[in-house]
Amino acid sequence: MPQLNPNPWFYIMILSWLTFSILIQPKILTFTSTNQPTNKATTITKTPSWTWPWT
To answer: What are the TM regions of this chain, as residue ranges (predicted)?
Structure first.
């Protein structure tokens, strides 16, 4: 059964992960997002209690 032979697939997997981690990942990490996260003040809104007609 050829799918159990790890010789070519293990090499391909290692090569692809090394390519991603060495070449592609640093290029992706240099991009800056356009919307930087900011801390918003939490506002507590007071909602009126519901008046049920049957109580």
So the answer is: 6-24
- Between CA 16 and CA 51 the distance in angstroms is 63
For residues 21 and 2, give the distance between their C-alpha atoms in angstroms, rounded to a whole number.
28
Tell me how far apart the alpha carbons of residues 34 and 26 are, in angstroms, rounded to a whole number: 18
> In the structure encoding, which two tokens stand for residue 8, read together?
């070519």
Ordered DSSP codes for 1-55? -GGG--HHHHHHHHHHHHHIIIIIHHHHHT---SS---PPPP----PPPP--TT-
pLDDT, tens only, 5-44: 777 888 889 999 998 888 888 888 888 777 777 777 777 8
